[in-house]
Every structure is written in structure tokens, then in C-alpha cells.
Amino acid sequence: MWNRPRFDLKVRLTLRVAAISAACFAAISAYFLVTADRAAHARSDSIAAIVAKSLELQQGKVQWVANPRSDFPNLDPVAAYVMTPGLCLAFRGPGGDMLQRFCSGAPAPANPPPQAFAAFYRSLFDPGREAARPVVVRGTKLGETVVSVDPAVQTAEAWHEAGRLMLALAIALPLLCVLVYAALARALRPTRMIRTGLERIAANDLTTRLPPFDLAELSAIRDVFNHLAQSLDTALAERSELTRKLIALQDEERRHLARELHDEFGQSLAAIRALASSARQTAAQECPSLLSECDGISRTATGMMETLRGALFRLRPPDVEELGLVASLEGLVAGWNGRSRGETRFSIRFDGAFETLPAAVSANLYRIVQEALTNAAKHAGATKVSLELTMRPDEIALAIDDDGRSNEPAAKSGMGLLGMRERVAALRGRLSFEAGPNGGSALRVVIPLEASDRQLLDHAA
């Protein structure tokens, strides 16, 4: 599955607001440009209408005054009132010839528009378009007035208006983004608390609860979160209690089996050894050829008794409550070193005082170490196994490292690891099993200490 890039929600929403704002500014700019173009054409049309009306009055005055001078058309009187920079007035005769034309000059703009804007504006609005009005006197069309504006002047005016909007956008948009980001950061601040709560839940801290929030949506999440945490806490407590009972029953079955083996099978082996010894004495006097068979029976019985002794030790180890956790673990490690005959070297180190550790914690830690050593020696084929047990203010940490095969399936998913997980879960602890940094496997167990346990340890210290 591909990992999609993740973006901060505040940044994403701020960028969307910025994009929408920029689109709104663009729409407003387009509206102003269209409005300005229409206003320019409306002004040209109105000027053309005024000039046409003035010329019609001139022609009517010429016809009513005696000895009229033939100075029609005369644009000078009206030009003095309507001329603006870049404006051109003209009179086109019936034949299409320009009989008179006036154009006012336009100063060079201080900030000329960019060529790209000028080309874009001219392609959309056609600046400099002529506005024409007919001059009609007594039903006869004498010509028409033509009004136009220099395209460069109109484009410069449009750029001036657009520049003002762009300046407003350049100032308002960053300010808007900052305000939106700050508002979102404040509104989404509870999400950090939700994330912290989820991380604590993932770390098995099921006592985590979220406080009330102002937003209704976050309050709904808070209610679901707290209900889920409460349900998980209750379920884990019930599971831990059931696991403790199962472990206690398992230990009781082991003790019962150990007693049965010791009382029945052990006595039978002792009897076999005694009979073999008696048979050897008889054979030495009457049938020397049976001495080797008697010695074989005695050796076999002795080997079976050694095997039985090891099985009894694993089924019912020395009482941790009487010997203490440290002495019991040291004896366990020494036993493994003796049985391995140098093939696997076991070492253990303690950091802290474990004398007053609660019996349940001590017994489970002993069983966890016992299962871990069995996995390392039998399944992973390790030649070196190191154990370290550390007492911390609020927890106990167990670290077991070996140089065996870390990808051995039995070492990761066997019954031994399952039993360790059950015991760790019963103590509300954490267990991790993974490949070591330098090869082999690394087992990490962390058992939290309850408040009463810590007080007992502090009092003993």
C-alpha cells in the first residue's frame, strides 16, 4: 500500500481559503474591468450623442440666420467642453470621408501596463472602439459624429484600476491567511489532546480520559473516546483476572503433576535402582555374565532419575517466596549453564532491590525468564544469552538478548511466547519480541508497579 503524503490540516484549509479568496478577487477584478469597459463605451456614446446634437443645432442656426457662413461642421465649441486625454472627435460625411477631426494628446503614463496585460485586455475588450451618432436635420442625414478613445489610454486606465485591486489582494490575502491559520489552530487545538489520548491508549494506559470540548463535533468524539477507553479498561481488567486464574490453575496443575511424578515415578525408579543393585550382588556370586545387564539397568534408572529431576525442577521450581527472585533466577541460569555443557552460555545481571517484590510479580517474572531461556536455547539455537533485570521507580524492565535465529517461527509464535504474553498481560505489562540490532533476538518486558507495590518497595528501601 502506498504511503500518501500527509499535510497539516491547518495548512490545507488555509491554502483552500487562500485559493477561494484569490478566485473571489479575480472575479471582482474581472467585474471591475468589465464595468470600466462598459462605462468607457457609455461615455463615448454619450459624447457622440452630445456632439451630434450640437452639430444639428449648428446646422439649424445656419439655416435661420440671414447670410449664413458655410462653416459647418464646426467642432470647436463642443470640443472645448468634452475633450479628455486621448479622446478623438470627428465628423464623417455622407460619402464616408472625414470632414473634420480633433484629437487631444495623452501624457505618457507613469506606470505603463505590462505587455501581457495590454494584449490580454485588448483581446477581451477591444479598447478604442468608435462610437458613432448620425446628424439628421429635417429628415436629411448630413453625416455622423465619431468618438473614439486612444486604446493605450483606455488600457492604462484599466491597468490602474486592476493594479489597485492587486495591491489590495497582496495586502489582504497574506493577512487573511494568517488570521485563518490562527483561528484554525485555536479551533483544532483539542485535536492534539485527542492524539495524545490515542497514543496513551496505544501504550496500554486505559485510564486516559478526554476533557469536555466547546465544539459539538469534538465533544461527540470525546464521548465516544471515553466510552471506548472505559470499555477497553473493563475488558482488559476482566481478561487480566481470567488470565491470572488460568495461570494459577496451570501452576497448580504443574505442582500436582510434579507431586505425582515424584511420589510415583520417582519411587519406582528408586526401586528399580535398588533391585538392580540387589540383582548385581546375586549375579556376582552365581552368574557373573549378568553383571553388565545389571549395570545397564542401574545406569538407565539413574539417567531417568536425572531427567525426572530436571522435569520436576521445571514443573515446580524452588519456592520464589522462600529463596527470593534473585536467588531463584541465579539458580535457573546456573542450571541451564550446567545442562548446556558449554554449548550455550547464559549470564544474568540485576539492577535494583527485588527482595520485597510482590509474590505474584516474582513468580510470573520467574516463569517468563524460564520460558524465554527455553525458547533461546531450544528453538533459536543461541550460543550466548544475556539477561538484565532492572528495577525502576514505577516499573520493572526485563531485557533478554541472544545470538540465535531471530526468524525461527517457533521462537516467535510458540506456546512459550504465548505463555509469556499471557503472564505479562495479567500484570498489565508490555512485551515485545523482535530482531536484535546485531543479529539474534531481543525480548523486552516492562511490568508496571502499582502504587501499593511502590510504597512497599520504598518502605523496604
UniProtKB/TrEMBL annotation:
GO terms for molecular function: phosphorelay sensor kinase activity; protein dimerization activity. Residues 185-237 form the HAMP domain. This is histidine kinase. Its main location: membrane. One of its GO terms (cellular component) is membrane. Its EC number is 2.7.13.3. Keywords: Kinase, Membrane, Phosphoprotein, Transferase, Transmembrane, Transmembrane helix, Two-component regulatory system. The chain crosses the membrane at residues 13-34, 165-185. It catalyses: ATP + protein L-histidine = ADP + protein N-phospho-L-histidine. It comes from the Bacteria. It is found in: Membrane. It holds the Pfam family HAMP. InterPro entries: HAMP_dom, HATPase_C_sf, HATPase_dom, His_kinase_dom, Sensor_HK_TwoCompSys, Sig_transdc_His_kin_sub3_dim/P. Residues 365-451 form the Histidine kinase domain.
